[in-house]
């Protein structure tokens, strides 16, 4: 029997994750909205969100003997790290999440893990409303991630948010990367320009994503459908849209001369120059 109240929350968590949100942000938003967890309490944890996203029971399957009894007298149990056999049973429960969606989430989790390891990013999933670019800005010259810095943070009139290569001063007092910095506002405009370029070439992208829907990869199929929904009826944008950014963008690679290459989650790369 499906608990529809819980099922609705689970479906939302899966959708939010595939919309580009991290477990930390998903947990905070559930708390802010006063949505209770499975124990009826309003506190949500990042670890709980990750467990929900990776639990096969939500697609109707069961992995038996995840834990096993170590001592039958004390009834002590332990996590099964292949000490005893585990058994995978398909369609053991009524499914809450479509199998394709569940598989897409597993592939997206692996993609984010690989991306974070490649660029040495520890907090890829911690982007917020005030810091949407966290873990997504890369230095073209050395391939390292940019870090967010605030200049004149005590004076609101002079306050500026900039991004600088994390390797610039990897060794204290010594420059390891000659890259300068880039203003937060330039990144906002770069995304606006990118999305509007997609609008101008809507027909091309629509055909590309229709082909993507035939892919054998569940994540490619999901993102192709998602991109089609996003671009089908929308018009050009004038301001940065954070949710839109999370949904379609993998990273922004910054080069000298104000050149930025915006990499989308469908594999497309669009070069923009922001004056």
From TrEMBL:
InterPro entries: DNA_bind_recomb_sf (IPR038109), DNA_bind_recombinase_dom (IPR011109), SSR_resolvase (IPR050639), Zn_ribbon_recom_dom (IPR025827)
Protein origin, superkingdom: Bacteria
An example Gene Ontology molecular-function term: DNA strand exchange activity
All residue ranges annotated as the Recombinase domain in the record: 1-115
Classification via PROSITE patterns: RECOMBINASE_DNA_BIND
Transmembrane segments: none
Keywords: DNA recombination, DNA-binding
Pfam family, one: Zn_ribbon_recom
Gene3D superfamilies recorded: Putative Large Serine Recombinase, Chain B, Domain 2
Signal peptide: none
Protein name: Recombinase zinc beta ribbon domain-containing protein
Species lineage: Bacteria, Bacillati, Bacillota, Clostridia, Eubacteriales
